[in-house]
Amino acid sequence: MKEELFASGRNIPNIDPYLNIWHWQIPSYLxxxxxxxxxxxxxxxxxxxxxxNKMEATVKKAPMLVPxxxxxxxxxxxxxxxxxxxxxxxxxTIRLESPMGWGSWVLMIITxxxxxxxxxxxxxxxxxxxxxxxxxxxxxxxxxxxxKIIAWPMAIYAVILGIYTGILLSAFxxxxxxxxxxxxxxxxxxxxxxAAAVIMLMxxxxxxxxxxxxxxxxxxxxxxxxxxxxxxxxxxxSEVQINAANLFLGGKFTAPFFAFVVILGLIFPxxxxxxxxxxYKVPIIIPxxxxxxxxxxxxxxxxxxxxxTRYLY
Amino acid sequence: xxxxxxxxxxxxxxxxxxxxxxxxxxxxxxxxxRDWVVEVVEGTYPNVSIELRTERCNHCDNSxxxxxxxxxxxxxxxxxxxxxxxxxCIGCGACIQACPYDARYSHPDGYVDKCTFCIHRVREGKKxxxxxxxxxxxxxxxxxxxxNSEIVNVLKNRKFKSLAPEAGTKPQIFYLV
Lengths: 313, 177
Description:
- The structure holds two protein chains of two kinds.
- Chain A is mainly α.
- Chain A has a single domain, classed as Formate dehydrogenase/DMSO reductase fold.
- Chain A has helices at 25-48, 56-61, 66-80, 99-120, 122-125, 134-145, 147-170, 183-202, 206-235, 239-246, 254-277, 285-308; one strand at residues 5-8.
- In chain A, α8 packs antiparallel against α9 (206-235) and α8 (183-202) runs antiparallel to α12 (285-308).
- Chain A is globular.
- The two termini of chain A are 21 Å apart.
- A four-stranded mixed sheet of chain B has the order 8-1-10-9. In chain B, strands 2-3 form a two-stranded antiparallel ribbon.
- In chain B, a hairpin with a 2-residue loop joins β2 (35-44) and β3.
- Chain B is α+β, with helices and mostly antiparallel strands.
- Chain B is built from six helices and ten strands; from the N terminus they run βαββαββαββααβαββ.
- Chain B has one domain (3-176): Alpha-Beta Plaits (2-Layer Sandwich), CATH 3.30.70.20.
- Classes of the chains: A mainly alpha, B alpha+beta.
- At the A-B interface, β1 and α4 of A face β2, β3, α2, α3 and β6 of B.
- β1 of chain A pairs antiparallel with β2 (35-44) of chain B, so a sheet runs across the interface.
């Protein structure tokens, strides 16, 4: 029998036709969080490897952006809250079950670490810098002595922060597009790739740029594999997951996703970076900006599309 | 004690009286609903079947909204009723994303709002507003742990289903089919 299915009834003016509760603030926040995580991870990695002086922009200059990036991200998160005056309730409870709960605690820890890290390099990056108070000089001396020890927790928290930006979405069972554990590693790798792009923009040292370029190519390849993996997982899943994947494989997000994220945001900059490594002259600003835009658009598309996907009943 | 609801899809006529009763009882702002009626038609004319369902928060046993709440504003009251404490809610929207039934909405005052099973009435021994006004008496509300309750009786004698059980939420609204 040819069967038609017709469902109607739920048409609540301010809620339907589909969920639209998270707007530009959340994807921007996820992007900034991933970027900050990547910057801190590279800084601590090269510090632990003992390459501080070979990777000046990575270890000394780029982390100075992180406190500002994190504060801007937190500000966006604050803008997203609908009951703003009660935001402090986030820090009166510890709820490990809630990704947003432990994520806000991770930010509470990693923001001061990133400020201390930047403070320890202030005099080196800005030679005329003066702390004015004796106690600040004492703290600075202690920080400089213990950088390698600080680098370890910073690396660990950076990884948690990067993965958290994905888990924030993947913890929602009700949104099939987000409900996949690959989103954590995918957002971490994507965040690291955007961080590498920022470092390449900031670095004046040709050798350092070459190292970051190589790392970035590797990250982009891993990211592409993760994206393939994401859709493979969906297509092998239940109906709601197949529907979610189809939004990107023929549905209304196909064109922006493949044009701006996969091609312009990943493959094209990777090709440009390969050309640069081969010795061709490529202005670094082109691949770097494309990677940053690709990362940002990727998060916007995921957040927007995820809110459309839902259980069928 | 475990409060639950059984709704007879064969008796419901889709009048939306439950929706209006809820809005009046709970002062729900215009343009929002804590409960709603869904109409599902299957088949090709003339062989069609219709199902009318009044839907609301399922007060799930394994409630994803309570798990994802960063402040503990969403919590489970005695009797398994899922509630939002307005002064603890920061309006982050996580619980709205977490609900497979889209039963929550952002109240214009900022906090997240939803069906409370009319806990204020239940505590006084009354039935929820939607149940008490239903002209066809298609809704049964009661305690699943009480073997003599009306709802246990109904669920014993009728076939029933719940919505999206594959979401793993263990919903506590049962639809008699």
